[in-house]
Amino acid sequence: MTFSMLALVVVLGLCGPLLALRRSWHVPVILGELAAGAVFGATGFGVLDASDPVFTFLADLGFALVMFVAGTHVPVRDPLVRTALGVGALRAVVVGVLAGALGFGIAAWFETGHGAIYAVLIASSSAALVLPIIDSTGLSGKPVLALTAQVAIADTAAVVALPLVIDPGNAGRAALGAVAVAACAVGLFLALRAVERSGVRKRVHRISEDRLFAFELRVSLALLFALCAVATQTHVSIMLAGFAAGLAVAAVGEPRRVARQLFAISDGFLAPLFFVWLGARLNLREFGEHPRLILLGVALGAAAILAHIALRLLGQPVGYAALAAAQIGVPVAAVTVGTQLHVLLPGESSALMLGALITVAASALAASHLARQPNSHSTN
User: Which candidate in 197, 249, 276, 282 could, as Cys together with 37 as Cys, close a disulfide (CB 3.0–4.6 Å)?
Assistant: First the structure.
């Protein structure tokens, strides 16, 4: 990879913010980045080579940071959310049961044999996508608390389950690796909590801020990459390592200064690079060779929305249920990991992303509808 190619990738990353510029559309930034990568990658002009080892390594760094930020978005410290855990867990379980039936049904219909993967995707929600939408629209009240708990539980469960179902032949090894990563994440949480309670972090923070050392950022990145090293050594995706590290930091409380610094590194460079790389890696031309897979993507997106809005029978408003159906991190991880392990069929990765984009569109429409309803902003 050359500097000229890197400059092109960074410029293409600007397509994300430009497409998401209009707030009322609630278009996720990654949509423009994926589209730009597709246009200049395998689908379009072929200028970007997603197999380039330097490009791939930088994309892996971006993937780890994307999952880390997603983990920090899970509101594990919010006492109000904890009061809604019972309702949220029940809804997540019901969606999971429906997702299992729909996922295996779709796999049988399209004869892919990936029912377990589809079930995890259909059941998943994206805290990194849903929570910013809730904040930007000002939604509040008990339905939002229950929705937040449901999304947090579903997101966490899907991230843990995906490595186990995407390569069932090595599920035992993946389970052991997941346990190792989880144990390291728990150790990280305990260490961070001890440092926080002892006052060491605050003293380091003052020195770092006065001397411009960025100690906290350096330590955060070192811990994240160390956990990613554990994941790679135990044959687990860095997806789980990044998410687990994010959860550990969220449980202690991420310092605002570190959050801003990580935002600059992640959203300013590595995350856009990852999504441009992912778009470049997707080959939408395979839809022309396998047009039936377009229907697979539509079926997956529709199934995710259906499984979530079925909770209307349990009293959840349709708008909030559709918002909970939004998925992006887990499908992206499925495409990334599935492609690396060569377990997906030709064109199937594009179908998974199509399904995810359908849920994003549905959630954006639901958010716009909810934002226009005055009672959606109630604190009761």
Answer: 276
How much is the pLDDT for 379? 44
Q: Which two tokens stand for residue 171?
A: 């599920």
- Give the integer Cα–Cα distance in Å for 254 and 220: 10
Cβ proximity of 188 and 227 under 8 Å: yes
| DSSP class per residue in 52-66 | -HHHHHHHHHHHHHH
Which amino acid is residue 70, in one-letter code?
Answer: A
CA 116 – CA 226 distance, rounded (Å): 30
Angle at 138 between CA 249 and CA 370, to 5 degrees: 120
* Residue 131, CA atoms < 13 Å, CB-side half-sphere: 20
CA 74/CA 93 separation, integer angstroms: 18
Using the Cα atoms of residue 116, residue 163, residue 50 and residue 271 in order, give the sign of their dihedral: positive
Map out the domains of the chain with their CATH numbers.
Answer: 78-265+286-372 (1.20.1530.20)
Retrieve residue 231's tokens: 């994941």
**pLDDT tens sequence across 179-225:** 999 999 999 999 999 998 998 888 988 898 888 888 888 988 999 99
Q: Which two tokens stand for residue 22?
A: 């209009």
122, 101 Cβ separation under 8 angstroms: no
**d(C-alpha 311, C-alpha 367), whole Å:** 17
DSSP string, 348-371: HHHHHHHHHHHHHHHHHHHHHHHH
Calculate the CA dihedral of residues 43, 45, 50, 51 and round it to 10 degrees.
Answer: 100
Query: Shortest CA distance to 349 belongs to which of 2, 188, 31, 114?
Result: 114
